[in-house]
Amino acid sequence: MTAAIRKALESLGQPLADGMAEKFGILLDELERWNRKVNLTAIRDRDEIITSHLLDSLVAVPLIAGKSVLDIGTGPGFPGLPLAIVQPERHFTLLDSNNKKVMFVQHAAGLLGLNNVSVVKSRAEDYAPGHGFDTVIARALAALPRLVEIAGHHVREDGVFVALKGRYPTEELEQLKQLRLPWRHVVTELNVPGLDEGSRHAVLLRR
Fold it and tell me: Rounded to whole angstroms, how far apart are CA atoms 139 and 63?
């Protein structure tokens, strides 16, 4: 697994510190092990796991701003765990309402010694941390109007909401525009090695 991860990371073109490929290997090995007993992800193929979970998370690295990051609907820890591994200077709060997935994320963060990760079992709309976050990120969780509704209040006034999407979300952006909410957006295309060109985009929302 680690050799395959190293090769995949080279194709991504991001400089990574020593030992990170090994940490990614531990994370994905544990994901496979747990997935045999608990349904954490429908993706079973190793190469597809590397592409669709690991690389698809790491392309968001340049989009993260500030010191505090909230990953809503993290599932089995993506993109939060890979981002926390490569950005130890930031603190990541990983949020999900599924107990089995939260248990896996807690286990994986502890196993990897990720002191910059907090794990919370909650729905985004019910979570009340008492403060905002510099970056709120969501990966294929809900349509943009719904995302803003359930989690927009978690973004600090000068923060950014990063919504990771598949193909260009024309319809969702139009729906967001019709609501006349105080958010401006920029859409950027993400190049995930192994996935078709134009298959991944990020919508960056700011007030």
Answer: 13
H helices present in the chain, as ranges: 2-12, 20-35, 46-49, 56-58, 80-86, 99-111, 144-151, 170-178
Per domain, the residue ranges of the chain are: 2-206
DSSP lists the bridge partners of residue 120 as 95
Q: What is the percent of the chain with per-residue pLDDT over 90, rounded to a whole number?
A: 84
Alpha carbons 87 and 202: distance in angstroms, whole number? 19
Task: Tell me how far apart the alpha carbons of residues 194 and 191 are, in angstroms, rounded to a whole number.
Answer: 9
pLDDT in tens, 72-87: 999 999 999 999 999 9
Given a contact cutoff of 8 angstroms between Cβ atoms, the answer to whether 116 and 84 are in contact is yes
Given strand 155-165, what is the order of strands in its sheet?
117-121, 91-96, 68-72, 133-139, 155-165, 201-206, 184-189
Q: Alpha-carbon distance 109 to 94, whole Å?
A: 10
Q: What is the pTM of this model?
A: 0.96
Please give the class, per CATH, of domain 2-206.
alpha beta
